[in-house]
UniProtKB/TrEMBL annotation:
UniProt superkingdom: Eukaryota
Family membership: Belongs to the iron/ascorbate-dependent oxidoreductase family.
Region (Disordered): 161-193
Name used for this protein in its record: Isopenicillin N synthase-like Fe(2+) 2OG dioxygenase domain-containing protein
InterPro entries: DIOX_N (IPR026992), IPNS-like_FE2OG_OXY (IPR044861), IPNS-like_sf (IPR027443), Iron_ascorbate_oxido_reductase (IPR050231)
Organism: Penicillium desertorum
PANTHER family: 2-OXOGLUTARATE (2OG) AND FE(II)-DEPENDENT OXYGENASE SUPERFAMILY PROTEIN-RELATED
Non-haem dioxygenase N-terminal domain segment(s): 27-112
Length: 273
């Protein structure tokens, strides 16, 4: 339960549980307007990508409902999969690969775009392969729409376009990732996960308060509101290196004490290799 109290230009204050949080005010970009090359929306996207590097994207009602249904399935599947015994989960481990099961600090399971039709999904993802892979491809369409819009806004011609390094028929490690990051009994025990993302564009869904970002100018840590019916997007290191857009420093955290399940669904657009 949260409530907005004070608004300012770049941050606002919200009451979450028994805490007052400084929360980032981020742009909300409409996907359909980008598809239609709306100049106001594309400018808004470029400014958000240059300034804080984090923004939200919304979709039309039909797509939004579809994503919401798929996420529900993904959260249930994640709950069931990560609760399995370790030896069972390790059957989905892939040495030296981005895809598969990982337990480096936090547990995750990733399906890469390139391998989606060759990967044997573990249960219960296998029983919901249609929804899982449809979500993966919806995510891929969203990030490619963002990439094209950013590339056009930057005025890059065809030979220098960002799409050249992200050809759908080229090899990449882009993928859909499910993460189990349960909260800690005490916020004092939350590990420091400060980082930037290494790829090009990241999509993130999480139903709970889980993310903090550092502002570009003042380096102040602000919470990110897990707004319903939005996907949180951030620019990552590769795009920053190619374009001067901002790959924001961020971390996973929790605003208050108490252990509970918490699942993330992410999509990582990574360049061709
Ligand atoms: Fe990240």
């Amino acid at each position: 339960m949260s409530q907005t109290m004070v608004s300012a230009r770049s941050k606002t204050t919200m009451i979450v549980g028994d805490r007052s949080l400084d929360v980032a005010v981020l742009e909300v970009i409409k996907l359909e307007s980008l598809i239609a090359n709306d100049p106001v929306e594309t400018t808004k996207l470029l400014e958000a990508a240059k300034s804080q590097g984090f923004f939200y994207v919304t979709c039309d009602n039909d797509l939004s409902q579809k994503i919401s249904d798929y996420l529900r399935t993904c959260y249930l599947n994640s709950h069931e999969f990560f609760a399995k015994p370790l030896d069972e989960k390790m059957k989905a481990f892939r040495e030296g690969m981005n895809d598969g099961y990982k337990r480096a600090g936090i547990e995750s399971f990733e399906i890469t775009r390139d391998e989606q039709n060759r990967t044997t999904l573990p249960s219960p993802f296998a029983e919901h392969a249609g929804a899982t892979l449809d979500l993966l491809n919806i995510c891929d369409t969203i990030v490619r729409t963002l990439l094209r819009s950013i590339s056009d806004s930057l005025g890059l011609d065809e030979s220098a376009s960002l799409q050249n390094a992200h050809r759908p028929d080229g090899k990449s490690d882009s993928g859909l990732k499910f993460v189990s990051g349960p909260t800690k009994a005490s916020t004092a025990d939350v590990p420091d996960t400060t980082h930037t993302d290494g790829g090009s564009i990241t999509l993130l869904w999480c139903e709970k308060w889980a993310s903090q970002m550092q502002t570009k100018e003042t380096k102040e840590w602000l919470w990110i509101d897990p707004k319903p019916n939005c996907v949180l997007v951030n620019i990552a290191d590769y795009l920053q290196s190619q374009t001067g857009l901002h790959s924001p420093v961020h971390r996973v955290s929790q605003p208050s004490d108490g252990v509970e399940d918490r699942y993330f669904v992410s999509y990582f657009l990574r360049p061709n290799h």
